[in-house]
Amino acid sequence: MRERTKVRGVVKNKKNQNQMKPKRIIIGIDEVGRGALAGPVVASAVAIEQLIDGVKDSKLLNVKQREKLAGEIEKHAIALSIEMIPPQEIDKLNIYNATLLAMKNAFFMTLEDLKPKPETEIFVFIDGDAIFQITPEERINLPTTRLHLIALPSADKFIYQVSCASIYAKHNRDVLMMTIFDAKYPVYNFKRNLGYPTPEHIRAIKDNGPCEIHRKTFLKNFDEMLKLPL
Fold first, then answer.
1. In this structure, are residues 134 and 152 in contact, taking their beta carbons and an 8 Å threshold?
2. Contact 70, 105 (CB under 8 A)
3. Cα dist. 204→2, 121, 187, 195 in Å?
């Protein structure tokens, strides 16, 4: 049986830790949950070389397919991580900054797990049009200076590692919303809407008010747009 431990969002696969690290590594980063009214925004950073059949943009896969592929990605990745920024932090930072923070934290966790040599060249492909900032202090402590951060809209559709990150992020967020949060707050039916603004979800908020995992800044904007008596 494959032995692994999960620490602070880093999934360490001991079977793969002893693999010889290539001189050039690609890390894919993607997020999920930006448009939800409830729950965290989640980012994943995945370094993987082995091709897995069926990997593509997570939005084109069903729940069972994502679950199976997420297990395969975790099994074969050189390194991967998951980061979740909770609703309270999203309300403080705004969703744009919270998403960049999730991506940045996921990247640094995966980089730490990779332990690249100084001569290793790393290409980081980020789905979207924004790149998180690495401070001068953080750059001093980077294990390699040969680091390239590249943001590409729709990268999850044509860059394999980003597709893997998309699947892994969405699977983990979906499981959280469909199990723990759905059980804790059953009136909102998170198992079905995953925190997104479906008519049913909006009606549940109108009838019951928001719960502690709703993003208060999002509800305020929704109230102004739809004139909901929240």
1. no
2. no
3. 42, 50, 7, 11
Model-level pTM? 0.88
Residue 143 corresponds to which tokens in the numbers above? 């294990």
Relative to beta strand 24-32, strand 10-13 is unpaired
Burial class for 105, CB neighbours closer than 10 Å (0-12, 13-18, 19+): buried
Set out the domains of the chain in order of their start, with CATH numbers: 4-179 (3.30.420.10), 186-226 (no CATH)
Give residue for tokens 């990779």.
114
* CA within 13 Å, CB half, 33: 37
Amino acid in position 164:
C
Strand order in the sheet with 41-47: 4-7, 10-13, 79-85, 41-47, 24-32, 121-127, 147-152
Among all chains, which residue has been given the structure tokens 């969002």? Answer: 9
Rounded to an integer, what distance in angstroms lies between the CA atom of residue 120 and that of residue 99? 27
Which token pair is 36?
A: 């939800």
- Can you tell me the distance from the alpha carbon of 103 to that of 106, in angstroms, rounded to the nearest whole number? 5
Which parts of the chain register pLDDT below 70?
Answer: 1-22, 222-230
Extract the tokens encoding 216: 């208060």
| Res 8: pLDDT | 45
Which amino acid belongs to residue 31?
E
